[in-house]
Write a structure and sequence with these properties.
The complex is a heterodimer of chains A (98) and B (211). Chain A has 98 residues and is of the alpha+beta class. Chain A is built from 5 helices and 3 strands. Classes of the chains: A alpha+beta (98), B mainly alpha (211).
Chain lengths: 98, 211
């Protein structure tokens, strides 16, 4: 049991962070506004979770200009992808051993 | 530490988000039904009013006529086909907006953009090719080309919406290829491909996901 829990990554322990990672696992990149709509969260809330994931090296930020409008998009890093896979496996195992 | 029922909910939420962020699910089966009905109406209109109850065979006979004699007929057929296309697109847009609203989802997302681009590339290529056929007087290949390119558009868009769209595309391609080998039956293949297939698809989708 102890080993199991160690794979449950604290970084992902929030519905919003799980949501962000889920989107970025299956999409090459996703922009801020679309993430906001998909996950149905407020600007501030999303921004703080994105910041946290970025600081842990799970996602990377790409800032671009489309015309004169800034456009920020996010993508998962390799670390992020493998960490999230581990996290998913641990979750599934937890459920199975119930 | 989370408890187990939370883990189950987490996994469920993850699956849902992964699916919703890669597939556009606001397409309604009703669009298929209406597109099919419009296509059949268009074909019947062409048969009774443009082709004079079928007494005008637009295939071989048509080809051998000097262009001047057939030009008004051609324009009428093109206008008819365009009207069918326009009505179908408007209907499916309307039903998608309605379905998205009902499920309080957004219509304009990265997925719907990808869906549209992947749908439009084969379709626009097909449209231009059909214009070439018309200009080069290859009338008999117009309906097969419509069906084949439309099928290809559905196959390429199918990755970004319900998987059934992919199979509808395959069936349209098969119908189009069959039409290419059977001269003189363009209108019937049009009714099968754009009419009947759409209606069957629409009914199946509506019953499976919306009823």
């Amino acid at each position: 049991m102890k080993d199991l829990i160690s794979h449950i990554n604290k970084v992902f322990e929030s519905r919003i962070r799980l949501g962000i990672m889920s989107v970025l696992m299956v999409n090459e990149s996703y922009d801020f506004n679309s993430l906001k709509e998909t996950l149905n969260v407020t600007d501030g809330n999303l921004a703080s979770h994105l910041k946290a994931l970025e600081e842990k090296g799970m996602i990377k930020v790409n800032k671009q200009f489309i015309g004169r409008k800034p456009n920020t998009s996010y993508s998962a890093t390799e670390t992020g992808i493998s960490e999230f896979r581990h996290h998913l496996k641990a979750l599934e195992k937890l459920i199975r051993e119930q | 530490m989370k408890n187990d029922s939370n883990s189950i909910e987490d996994i469920r939420a993850i699956r849902k988000i992964m699916e919703e962020s890669t597939r556009f699910l606001s397409l309604s089966g009703l669009s298929g039904i209406f597109a099919g009905l419009t296509a059949i109406a268009g074909a019947l209109f062409a048969w009774f009013f443009i082709l004079d109850n079928g007494s005008i065979h637009y295939d071989e006979y048509f080809r051998n006529l000097p262009e001047k004699e057939t030009i008004s007929l051609r324009w009428k057929l093109i206008a008819d086909a365009l009207a069918v296309l326009l009505l179908s697109v408007l209907f499916s847009f309307y039903f998608s907006v309605k379905k998205a609203k009902k499920e309080s989802k957004n219509l304009w997302t990265p997925v719907s953009r990808r869906l549209l681009i992947n749908f439009l590339i084969p379709l626009v290529a097909g449209g231009i090719f059909v214009i070439a056929l018309l200009v080069r007087n290859q009338i008999q290949f117009i309906v097969p080309s419509f069906l084949i390119f439309y099928g290809l558009a559905l196959v390429s868009a199918g990755k970004f919406t319900f998987g059934e769209v992919f199979y509808l595309g395959i069936l349209e391609i098969i119908t189009g290829l069959a039409a290419a080998f059977v001269p003189g039956w363009g209108l019937s293949f049009w009714i099968i491909g754009f009419g009947i297939l759409h209606i069957v698809y629409g009914l199946a989708m509506y019953r499976k996901y919306e009823a």
